[in-house]
Amino acid sequence: MTDESWIDPNKIKSYKFLLESLAGDRMAVFIKKFEILQKETANSTMLSDCVPVIMDLITCDLNVDKALRQSLLRSLVQMVVSSEKVVQKISASWKTDVLLGNLIRVMREHVMTQYKHYQLYTHNVVTVMKCLAQVMKNNKAKENQLIETTYFVGNDNCTMLDVLLKPMQYLVNMNKMFNDLGCLLLNTEDTDYVGEIKRYLTQVFNKIQSKLDLVSEIIDQIMKRYERRCDKTKSADEKWKKIKDKLVRIFETTIVAPCSFTFNLYLNYYFPNEELLNEYLSTLIIK
Length: 287
What we know:
Elements: H1 9-14, H2 16-23, H3 25-61, H4 66-96, H5 103-138, H6 140-148, E1 151-153, E2 156-158, H7 160-182, H8 188-233, H9 238-249, H10 263-270, H11 274-286
Antiparallel strand pairs: 1-2
């Protein structure tokens, strides 16, 4: 492992005006950009894992209209493709600019052209949730199966309800991340791009908020009915309580976990020796 103490304190002082800028406002912006890259990368994997699970649900377990099945799966596939493309673009950009200078421009294009598929998915999934709730109401064995069976999606073990909600949860989290980014000190170009993204996402949520509320109500009904059945049979246990708590929190706008990508880690990852750091700082001074 690289020694984190290789940076000479005297050399740091000599570049104080550059390091303070990087560790202050610029570092805060970079960390938030890096979180967006992480979130988009995780989303690409998550969506790929969701597709076969949801496909199996709507084609085998639920009596879903063919047109709805096709529309839902089409939007899911498009979300996977677009997410993979934007990750490739951002990753390629990162190789030439470790500070992710054009990330907001790339994400602006992605949001403005591809988030319509998340919007369509949200509209379609309401009908799927209603069908799911009806099946679970009429068939106790199927209810137990759908609640207790877990699927490995991304890095999480998810119930069927979790899987259906994952794309919408991503949409809510990304909206918060762009709001957080807009509160930081950005350059003029990024400020304009973030403004466009936020205005577009406001339009999206104005259109789907009623659907999100309806899905939340359906989940609440499913939980209450399942709890009543558990009470009757005295079979409620800690596993169900954990599932319930997770579902209750899923629509709450949570604060994204602080990025552990610290300043020292950043320096030592990209500048494994002092000579490379001096060379990079010299280019900044020349500019």
